[in-house]
Amino acid sequence: MQLAHADFASALVLPEAAQLSLAEFVDDFGASLLDAVRRQNPPVYDGAADPRRDELMDRLRRKPFPAQRDAVQALTRLLLDTGDPAAILNAEMGTGKTMMAIAAAVVMHEAGFRRTLVLSPPHLVYKWRREIMLTVPDARVWILNGPDTLQKLLTLRAMRTVPAVPEFFVLGRVRMRMGFHWRPAFNVRRTVYRDELGARHVAAYATCPDCGQWLTDRANDSELPMSAARAKVVLDENRSACPHCSGRLWTLTRKGKPQRSHRELVMDALQQLPTIGVKTADNLVRRFGEEMLGAMLADNVHEFINLMDEEGELVFSDRQAARMERAMAAMAAMEIGFGQGDYQATEFVKRYLPQGYFGLLVVDEGHEYKNAGSAQGQAMGVLAAKCSRTLLLTGTLMGGYAEDLFYLLWRLNPRAMIDDGYRPNVRRSLGPAAMAFMRDHGVVKDIYREAESRSHRTAKGKTISHRTAKAPGFGPKGIMRYVLPCTVFLKLKDIDGDVLPSYREVFESVAMTEAQREGYTKLAALLTAELRQALRCGDATLLGVVLQVLLAWPDCCFRDELVRHPRTGAQLAYQMAVFDDGDVSPKEAALIELCRREKGRGRKVLAYSIYTGTRDTTSRLRLQLERAGFKVAVLRAGVEAARREDWVADQVERGIDVLVTNPELVKTGLDLLDFPTIAYMQSGYNCYTLQQASRRSWRIGQRNDVAVHFFGYAESAQMDCLTLMAQKIAVAQSTSGDMPETGLDVLNQTGDSIEVALAKRLAA
């Protein structure tokens, strides 16, 4: 039947009652859609497991859950059977990514990829070793994270025999990109001459330490010998070579750290162990010698714990031995090295180890390598190119921007990106390719600004300026082309329901006191007026200042607030404190009530506060909670990252009720199972941190229901921030296997970062 134009248009518009969201549409028609997708794009893994790989996983000391087993089967099918160079495990926090990566490495070892290089955050290096030793029988683990990394790398270069058991090499992310320090190296030759008056002078000139030839100042096109003072300046700019014999005119040095004796190194190593102080360490060195103790510490700390004297008696008491054993069980960080050489580990692997020496590269917390010009991102790309296969682990693959994925995909599989036309330009820059990727698959805003020109005296004119800005969002085409073909998704809900308890998030709006509201209203009026005026002039200098003050002041109004212009230093606003040290703010009262309720149920609380620097609120929270009768501990950045897990275990053993910390300090790696209740005093606006820190206690092994509480002051910028965070996280979930409500949700039509969106709401 022929339809008229009007009838055809009306036929395309469904009645309101018949309109469906994308999720509802998929629920209703998902089966037929899935059949069509499978016909057009056959899945790499359809659930038919390889029995040989299942058998290998059955041999592990810790057996994977069925959902984890399927993820390992899918990853190894992609890397081994399909031959893809890289795979991504985008698994929710707490699903056991470490366990799955170890199981995949065992399967890869059996298939001929004998050595596995693990790229880990520095505070998780020893956790990786512990997890490997607990999972893989007969595994050999090397830690490449100490000052003796160069010595171990030299040993690796000499190891060319094929390992019979799985070998793992755990490299810290910071150590990976750390280079060496150097200084100019030349000989000084002194000559004596007399001036016209017969006075005697001594001149010092630089010569090559190898051939002895004079060094000339080529920078000034001079053929005269270069003075020693001038040589220190010229040769310090770059590592140079002698123009006569090509000998090096530089040498290695340890910047800021003088060479130390072996005795001093052993003394420091001993004092890292619990119960051993300066006097005990000195007595041990006197009795047993630095060589013997150093060998024990570097090779086998357990042998040191069971150290015996000449009469066969144990040196350490049962209490001391128990504390050392517990420390090792908690953090497994008792590997001590005595090397003193620095060399960039990535550079060594690139130059001195053969291609494919490491069969599999496991990149933990892979989203940390997304930035374009970061040294660690570039170093990761070098390692991925040197290893045969790469497995990237992450719980938050995308932070909202298509550019986040571009550089990750480029470092994982540059050939595929080049084939799609994204290649470096003539200056070897990837900037234009990244922008093209953003335009094809992300959101790019073209901003045009038109203004009347005042430079024309006899005629009127207009000037139009144009700039581009990236915005959050990633299109369905990009997800289908770049994410789905190489990514395995796993959610905690996919694991057996008996493994994990329930999880819920609770938002609690807290009303401000009258004085608090008046102070905030006054402060907001002054600062937003200044911000509007600055934005009219095209000056965004005040943007960060205004946002920080308005977000922080309701929580920090126990101190006077003086706001100055960041560039001119002029005073913009001043607000006196409204709470004394003895007063309890509404949000603090809400936290105290939550802690009291949870303590009555036998549950500990983990309280997050993002203000731990100039606006430190953690000390005040501790004081208020202790006044209310709670036992409180505050985890600060001063606790070394590698020791935080052990530090928290000590606090739990002391019987604390509340742990207060910044979410940045615990967002990755730590299993805080003892704290089933989490409270956010402030959320911040980092999607990665919020998603990671919220899952610290909802992990495999948790037996209690987990509740996450978000506190926000009503009628403040904090409410807008929480709303925007929810929107951005929803966009980010489109690359994590979650279905948005509408197809356009993945493009995030608001298109602004949280900071810009907040500024727009404030300046509206």
UniProtKB/TrEMBL annotation:
InterPro entries in alphabetical order: Helicase_ATP-bd (IPR014001), P-loop_NTPase (IPR027417), SNF2-like_sf (IPR038718), SNF2_RAD54_helicase_repair (IPR050496)
Helicase ATP-binding domain span: 60-429
The keyword Nucleotide-binding is assigned to this record: yes
Keywords, alphabetical: ATP-binding, Helicase, Hydrolase, Nucleotide-binding
Regions crossing the membrane: none
GO molecular function, one term: helicase activity
PANTHER family reported in the protein's UniProt record: DNA EXCISION REPAIR PROTEIN ERCC-6-RELATED, SNF2/RAD54 FAMILY MEMBER
Protein's recorded name: Helicase
Species this chain originates from: Aromatoleum anaerobium
